[in-house]
Amino acid sequence: MYIIGMKCKSCNEEWWAVSRRKKARFCPFCGTDTEAAGDEPAPAFAAEADMDAGVHLAADVPTYARIPSAAPPSWLPSAPSIVPPPLPALKPAALLAQVEPARDEPPMGVLTRADADRMPGPAVVVPHGYMCVGEYAFSYREDLQSIVMPDSAEVIAKFAFSMCRGIRNVVIPDGVAVIGEYAFYGCENLHSVTIPPSVEKIGRDAFRGCCGGGRLIIRCKKKSFAHEYALNAGVMHTFI
User: Which of 102, 103, 159 is nearest to 127 (CA)?
Assistant: First the structure.
């Protein structure tokens, strides 16, 4: 294998030729037959390359590179082989033991009656993660006096808290969009409900039978859906 500095007399281009022959016959720029033109390799630039350097060519098929300077480039005599990047080092077992374990999060979805039965009263805080308080989830819970729903909740399904006679105040979290039919039906001691502007639908008789003959008060934002609901239903309301 030879690395040869050549110059064409026809186009005056100079180039490096890496070839199995001691001379590159054709000019890569103008196609002139250099042997016929009488070009000779520059003695200072002709050198035999190591076959183990990673340069592999078919017979009589030279590879060309334009000469940028008087000295041959460093990459020509020994073409570097492609080395794959190193694999990431594995963490020692001692470091893995220090990694904080993943937190146990409740499943995203509907809070069912079975889930609610595992949350004893009188005060219940529903864990974050539930998007819907399911149908009949807390209905007829005589032990329930207060309920805190998660910020992840978006729907309170029908009959979710029906006949929970011990509840007095309810704060619907911001993010809930739907309060289903009869959601708080028969909550005789419920006298105050805070409804955020995110609520866009309140089902039929959602608060029927609340406050046992007294007056239920809805706390809401002015001109919100809850405000319109209170006006249409004839329910007392106050602004927050």
Answer: 103
